[in-house]
């Protein structure tokens, strides 16, 4: 990026960040998530590092918090209350330490700033406050405010049980000759947050978005009784003292404990950056087990003299950094939109984005589903967007930040012709579809799907190998995969293949000729038929067969499917007219019948056809899954539910019996609560199934 473009981008970022920060810090309202805001701030910081001549005193990177509220008396801080710069990767932390070492070598001739190691602590998602004790008695308490001036919230802080109103005046590690100034974080536990939201719902009021907003709003109440009712908690994290009295950050925590303050018991001194990274990885994995919210870890140079010598850069101390967890949301730029042709011929627009780390992985693509979704988002090529990803959920663009537009963005239109074979594109509801039933892209995607884990589970046959076999003419459709044994010599002769590779592929294919009925139906790429519809259809077939367990050949299966009338298909739960029509027509099209006959000829056997039974523990119970599960994968949970007679639904309705919820649940959880559906966590589910 050139200097001119960087200047334009920096100005846009500053304007938007200042707006978001004003709403967040002053009005206690979040226009975007903390993670998305952090992502914008990181982009601004990186640009200013690249073009330091563009840094201005009023840049958000030079600020700490928001302006003090007008309703409270203003209190100046004796020394500035700083914020922290953020790191989002191990490389960011390495870069931070390199900058610090270079600075200290030049200014203080300090060669080894980490000789006393680091102090690492959990980064609480609360509100920073300052406490001043005079002769051991709490005199004032204030918010951070803009770093230099905060709000007097003394009476509210006195309602927080974890904040001592008087302190022990004789700690062994500190000579108290003047007022004691302690800084820490007020926060709300997850349990208390849940209780408050339940009360909100009972009153018919909107639930709060997150514990941090409730904590901030509670601590700024003009009536201390309201603050007291919220049951805030507090952890101290620092003493305003000279390096001579507190040589290390670890000493500060010991001193705080001796004064009678709570500190986070998980913080500790470490010697190396690798130990810092291990600490961060541990708590990113175990954060859900904590009774409060955290969004990362804080890394300090443990030596307080070196910490003081390093000074401040912008709004933050040079010798500390906040190492954030992998964000569930981040901002990036959509560089282009390409169109993929799927296994049913559907055209799907996909955003190609500037690489960004979300949920622990680097993301460059996100599906946009259809043209209506692009219109709903108001998305243009070149837009800055918020991308979210929770657990194993596919990355999704959730919002367009239109205010960051430069005027160079371009509108996107769905193509009139298939990008693969040039056939006319037709519209089917919200879906644009290639009109050619024999579209090459559709064929390839259907074969990819056929061999996938959700269908025949041929792990050794990836898309690149399938492409090679199609290009070489070794297969024409999915059924031909089972004839590869006859073509072992042809495979061996291919470049980068050999006898071992060919043998492994053939062995894998031969071991997959026996398949369950639901997986077989799902493998056929029938329009509108996903995993759950395949399960429902399989149960109806088993009912018609009137057996508990049996093995069936393809011909028998085809006869059963063709015996279903259009009306009978519509009567199956969750199968409406459109899906019924798709199933009915698929099993009457000549090319599909020929394909099934080929599968029958190569020896595919459908096994484990189960007739519905009312004797199982979960018989008749409908489950919806949402969020990330910790101990089991979604596939494992689904198999357990089905094995016990239960059913899976992709959407929440009045027919849903249970909503099984993991970490970071989505809109399904909210709808389940609204409808009064029984909500289970993973432990409760395991107890239910025994």
Write a concise synopsis of the structure shown:
The chain is α+β, with helices and mostly antiparallel strands. Helices cover 37% and strands 20% of the residues.
List the helices and strands and how they pair.
Elements: H1 3-26, H2 34-50, E1 74-76, E2 86-87, H3 90-107, E3 118-124, E4 127-134, E5 137-143, E6 149-151, H4 154-157, E7 180-187, H5 190-202, H6 211-219, H7 224-229, E8 233-239, H8 249-259, E9 268-270, H9 273-286, E10 294-301, H10 304-310, E11 312-313, E12 316-317, E13 320-324, E14 329-341, E15 346-358, E16 361-367, H11 371-377, E17 384-388, E18 396-400, E19 425-428, E20 431-434, H12 440-451, H13 463-471, H14 488-493, H15 499-510, E21 514-516, H16 517-523, H17 531-545, E22 552-553, H18 554-563, H19 566-570, H20 577-586, H21 590-601, E23 605-607, E24 622-626, H22 634-643, E25 647-648, E26 658-661, H23 667-675, E27 678-680, H24 682-689
Parallel strand pairs: 2-13, 21-23, 24-25, 24-26, 26-27
Antiparallel strand pairs: 1-6, 3-9, 3-10, 4-5, 4-7, 7-8, 10-13, 11-12, 14-15, 14-17, 15-16, 15-20, 17-18, 19-20, 22-23
Helix pairs in contact: 1-2, 16-17
């Amino acid at each position: 990026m050139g200097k001119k473009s960087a200047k334009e981008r920096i100005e846009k970022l500053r304007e938007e960040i200042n707006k978001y920060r004003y709403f967040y810090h002053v009005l206690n309202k979040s226009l975007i998530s903390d993670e998305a805001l952090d992502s914008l701030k990181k982009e601004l910081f990186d640009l200013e590092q690249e073009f330091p001549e563009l840094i201005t005193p009023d840049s958000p990177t030079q600020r700490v918090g928001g302006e003090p509220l007008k309703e409270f008396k203003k209190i100046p801080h004796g020394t500035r209350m700083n914020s922290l710069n953020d790191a989002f990767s191990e490389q960011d932390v390495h870069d931070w330490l390199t900058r610090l070492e270079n600075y200290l070598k030049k200014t203080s001739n300090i060669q080894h700033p980490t000789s006393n190691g680091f102090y690492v602590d959990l980064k609480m998602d609360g509100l920073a406050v300052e406490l001043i004790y005079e002769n051991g008695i709490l005199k004032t308490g204030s918010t951070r405010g803009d770093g230099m001036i905060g709000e007097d919230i003394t009476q509210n802080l006195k309602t927080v049980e974890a904040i001592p109103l008087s302190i022990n005046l004789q700690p062994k590690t500190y000579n108290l000759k003047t007022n004691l100034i302690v800084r820490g974080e007020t926060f709300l536990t997850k349990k208390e947050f849940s209780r408050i939201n339940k009360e909100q719902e009972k009153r018919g009021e909107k639930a709060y978005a997150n514990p941090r907003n409730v904590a901030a709003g509670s601590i700024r109440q003009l009536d201390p009784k309201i603050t007291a009712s919220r049951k805030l908690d507090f952890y101290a994290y620092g003493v305003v003292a000279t390096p001579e009295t507190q040589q290390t950050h670890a000493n500060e925590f010991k001193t705080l404990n001796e004064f009678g303050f709570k500190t986070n018991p998980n913080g500790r001194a470490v010697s190396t950056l690798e130990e810092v990274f291990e600490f961060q990885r541990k708590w990113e994995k175990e954060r859900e087990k904590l009774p409060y919210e955290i969004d990362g870890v804080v890394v300090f140079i443990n030596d307080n003299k070196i910490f003081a010598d390093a000074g401040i850069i912008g709004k933050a101390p040079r010798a500390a950094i906040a190492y954030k967890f992998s964000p569930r949301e981040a901002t990036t730029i959509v560089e282009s939109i390409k169109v993929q042709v799927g296994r049913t011929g559907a055209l799907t627009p996909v955003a190609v984005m500037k690489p960004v780390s979300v949920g622990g992985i680097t993301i460059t693509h996100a599906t946009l589903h259809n043209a209506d979704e692009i219109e709903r988002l108001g998305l243009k090529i070149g837009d800055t967007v918020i991308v979210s990803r929770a657990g194993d959920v596919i990355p999704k663009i959730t919002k367009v930040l239109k205010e960051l537009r430069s005027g160079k963005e371009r509108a996107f239109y769905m193509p009139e012709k298939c990008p693969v074979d040039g056939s006319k594109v037709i519209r089917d509801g919200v879906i644009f579809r290639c009109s050619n039933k024999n579209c090459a892209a559709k064929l390839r995607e259907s074969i990819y799907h056929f061999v996938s884990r959700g269908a025949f589970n041929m792990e050794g046959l990836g898309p690149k190998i399938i492409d090679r076999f199609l290009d070489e003419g070794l297969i024409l459709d999915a059924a031909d995969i089972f004839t590869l044994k006859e073509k072992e010599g042809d495979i061996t002769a291919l470049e980068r293949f050999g006898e071992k590779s060919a043998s492994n592929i053939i062995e894998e294919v031969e071991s997959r000729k026996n398949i369950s009925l639901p997986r077989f139906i799902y493998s056929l790429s029938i329009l509108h038929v996903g995993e759950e519809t395949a399960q429902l259809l399989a149960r109806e077939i088993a009912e018609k067969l009137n057996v508990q367990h049996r093995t069936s050949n393809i011909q028998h299966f085809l006869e059963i499917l063709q015996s279903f009338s259009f009306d009978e298909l519509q009567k199956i739960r969750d199968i409406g007219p459109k899906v019924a029509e798709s199933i009915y027509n698929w099993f009457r099209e000549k090319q599909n019948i020929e394909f099934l006959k080929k599968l029958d000829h190569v020896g595919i056997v459908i096994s484990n056809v189960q007739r519905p039974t009312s004797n199982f523990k979960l018989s008749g119970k409908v489950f919806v899954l949402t969020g990330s599960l910790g101990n089991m994968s979604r596939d494992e949970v689904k198999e357990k539910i089905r094995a016990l007679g239960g059913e899976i639904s992709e959407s929440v309705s009045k027919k849903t019996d249970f909503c099984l919820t993991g970490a970071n649940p989505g809109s399904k959880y909210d709808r389940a609560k609204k409808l009064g559906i029984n909500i289970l966590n993973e432990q409760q589910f395991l107890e239910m199934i025994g």
